[in-house]
Amino acid sequence: MLPPDRTIRHPATTKRRGRWLAICVSMLAAITVPVRTQSGSPGLTIEDAVAAALRDSPDVRLARGAVDLQRGIHVQAARPFDARPAVAVGTSRTVLSGSEDLTETAPSYSALGTRLQAGISKMFRSGLTLESDVATTRTAPALLEGPTVNQITATADLTIPLRQGKGGGLPQATERAARLELDASERDLRRAAAAAVLRATLAYWEYRAAYERSTIVQAAADRSRKSVEEVTILIAADERPRSDIDLMLANAATKRAAEIDAAGQIVHARTLVAEAIGADLESAAIGTPASGLPDPTLTGPLVLDQLVRDALAQHDDLAAARSRQERAQVLRSGTANQLTPRFDLVLHTGFTGHVSSANLAELLGAAFKNVRGPNLSIQFVFEPSAVNSAVRGAMIEADAVYEQAAVTSDAVVRTVRYDIADALAGVESSRAQLASVREAVIRSRRALETVQRNFELGTATVFDRILAEDAATNAELAVLSATLRYATALATLQFARGVLIDGQGSALTVDPARVVRARQEDGR
I need a labelling partner for 62 at 20 to 30 A (CA). Which of 90, 314, 345, 452 fits? Predict the structure, then answer.
């Protein structure tokens, strides 16, 4: 009597089935996964990735351009305080009387007048305004006959604002506001650089994980193909029912599809890395990832409250928000100053020298002969404040901007706290998760070895073998997922703390070690 799981097979039928099984096995063995690496491309390290992001990221380059733009605005804001020199040269022809005594009649004559004038005006940031002018005038007969008049005049006016304009007024406030906005834009540059480094780091870890995921899936596919070969041999030897091959082939096909998908994820991850670091896939090859995922043991204990205090003392977002809040306050005060009456103290001084002579050499001596003397005057100038719609509107606008800046500063403080707490929780939970799934890997591999031995002895079914293989594969993928989650949370924590970037302006630097481990003293 035949066993219930065996059937009588015709020799020709058995031979055809054997050929069919051999064809299936050869097809599985011939299947290849798309190429995962670029031949000849050097390995890409995490150091390379973050350095390239800081150097070539479009976001960083745009932020640098914004800083340069704001620097130009700051330079323009100093225009009211520039010294303004002026020089004028003129000549004229005049018909004059031949005698200086108007009671006498004398024939008139033509005279040529030459005037040279030089002056300078300067507004100081204290609000003082200085205007100085020196002019020399020479009037001489056209034919060198008749009297010559030489005159030099020097004046200086100093205006001291007592109300409107005191302390520099709106021009000084505008310049200070431009300086504060420049400071904020430099902080924005650091923040953009940190964001670019974070983006490159996350993309790199995904790239690294894609390779490791492909390795795990490929190993699972290799096991499934090996299982098909073993089952084929056992069926041919009448040790297993032929129905087992269908399940094994289905399992192998599923693993093959996962293998192809994993290879596609590598291509996608490589594209994301190229985009994150500002590289062009057509002109710059992205090599295989040469740095492993971060080791959780490199990060020691971190205290949340201390992390938050350190971050609030140096965070670029908060510094930029506070600079803009101060800028709004400065503009608000400068605009309010424009609404006050103008009350100025004006000091005027000067002297005039005058001499009549036909001697050309006495032109320079004119200031010291026949001197009419220095003069001094003091004036108080009062100008009531006018109803100026432009100033009143600017005041309303300044109040609104200040309120918005204050709200933004408060929001940044809360955001920094929340982001650090959330990222730190992710770091701690992923580390705890890793400890658990690593134990699962060890035990699932042991279970797989046991099931394989039992399968060879005939005490385990195909289902048992497939389940054991899947359990081992899923445990390995869980370890990879937890490690990637830890790497992502770690980089996000360092970004939330504001410690990824050092330096200022064009001297920005990045420490790659800060994306693979975190320390309490980072960034201090």
Answer: 314
In a domain, 494, yes or no: yes
317 in the same domain as 409: yes
Q: Is the pTM of this model over 0.85?
A: no
Residues 253, 153: one domain? no
Domain with 446 in it: what CATH number? 1.20.1600.10
Q: Give yes or no: residues 202 and 317 share one domain.
A: yes
**Which pLDDT tens digits describe the chain residue by residue (524 residues)?**
333 343 334 344 444 444 444 444 444 444 444 434 444 456 899 999 999 999 989 999 999 999 999 999 999 999 989 999 999 888 877 665 555 555 555 566 566 778 888 999 999 988 899 999 988 887 776 555 556 777 788 899 999 998 888 888 888 999 999 999 999 999 999 999 999 999 999 999 999 999 999 999 999 999 888 888 888 888 888 877 888 888 889 988 999 999 999 999 999 999 999 999 888 766 456 889 999 999 998 888 899 999 999 999 989 999 999 999 899 899 888 888 888 888 899 999 888 876 665 554 454 444 445 555 678 889 998 888 766 787 788 888 888 888 988 898 899 999 999 999 999 999 999 999 988 898 889 999 899 899 888 887 878 888 888 888 889 999 999 999 999 999 999 999 999 999 999 988 778 999 999 999 999 988 76
Residue 2 domain flag: no
Q: Report DSSP letters for 399-438, one per residue.
A: HHHHHHHHHHHHHHHHHHHHHHHHHHHHHHHHHHHHHHHH
Give residue 237's domain range. Answer: 13-72+174-328+398-515
Neighbours of 84 (CB within 10 A): 12
CA dist 458 and 174 (Å) reads: 88
